[in-house]
Amino acid sequence: MGLHISLRKRLPHFDLRLDLGCARGELTAIVGPSGAGKSTLIRLVAGLETPDWGRMELGARTFFDKAAGIDVPTRERQVGMVFQDYPLFSHLSLAKNVAFSCADQGKVNALLARFGIRHLAQRKPGTVSGGERQRAAMCLALARDPAILLLDEPFSALDALTRSDLRGELRQLTRQLGIPVLLVTHDLHEAAELGDAIFPMTDGRHDPQWLSDTLSGARRASQNLATRVCA
Ligand SMILES: Nc1ncnc2c1ncn2[C@@H]1O[C@H](COP(=O)(O)OP(=O)(O)OP(=O)(O)O)[C@@H](O)[C@H]1O
């Protein structure tokens, strides 16, 4: 009873044609080259763009059904979204930013604690690090009790240590929340570490061959590098 998507959308350079499922409590990592349509897929699921044809269902709920004329607006889809450099309100503290999507102060504090930024609750976004801002963005997305979590390169601007911490947190959260999570990432290590399933795509289509080619290219490059390491 997870997420099921079957959709088509005409884009300037190709048609997006995707069939994708993601079970509750699982994370599907969407990988592929630049311009493959990964962010467009996320925007379609969020309701920020409209497919030309298809259906999107989450359990018994239908978000979108072209044939039946159903197109549930974004605010009613219960999506939690985090993308790179998520915009927080600069004049509000981190706690007030999170409270914007949840009136329950106890829950806001628990989320801030979970993501290790409880001590920064009263600080404004401009006075904390990029990693701390992304943690606040995750709290904001989760405070809404989302039915699905959509993450578009949420960690890509962060240093390796912060990325690794946040990945660990996300892995635990996905299991605990029991909701489907779609994660767009350029980082195949991240996809391998977090993905219960990997969904490679190129030019708007599912393309497992791209992943095999990329992995064998990377193997060749690392062998090539190994032969040239100074003694
Ligand atoms: N606002 C737009 N106007 C016109 N074309 C767009 C727009 N946004 C995306 N596209 C085109 O749609 C296609 C898919 O773009 P999309 O951003 O979904 O790819 P992506 O896989 O997320 O790329 P990246 O990894 O670089 O973020 C690309 O060919 C892109 O040029």
UniProtKB/TrEMBL annotation:
Domain ABC transporter as annotated: residue spans: 1-228
InterPro entries, alphabetized: AAA+_ATPase, ABC_SmlMolc_Importer, ABC_transporter-like_ATP-bd, ABC_transporter-like_CS, P-loop_NTPase
Pfam families: ABC_tran
SMART domains: AAA
Taxonomy, superkingdom: Bacteria
Keyword tags: ATP-binding, Nucleotide-binding, Transport
A single GO molecular function term of this UniProt record: ATP binding
Protein name, as recorded: Molybdate transport system ATP-binding protein
Organism, as annotated: Desulfomicrobium macestii
Lineage: Bacteria, Pseudomonadati, Thermodesulfobacteriota, Desulfovibrionia, Desulfovibrionales
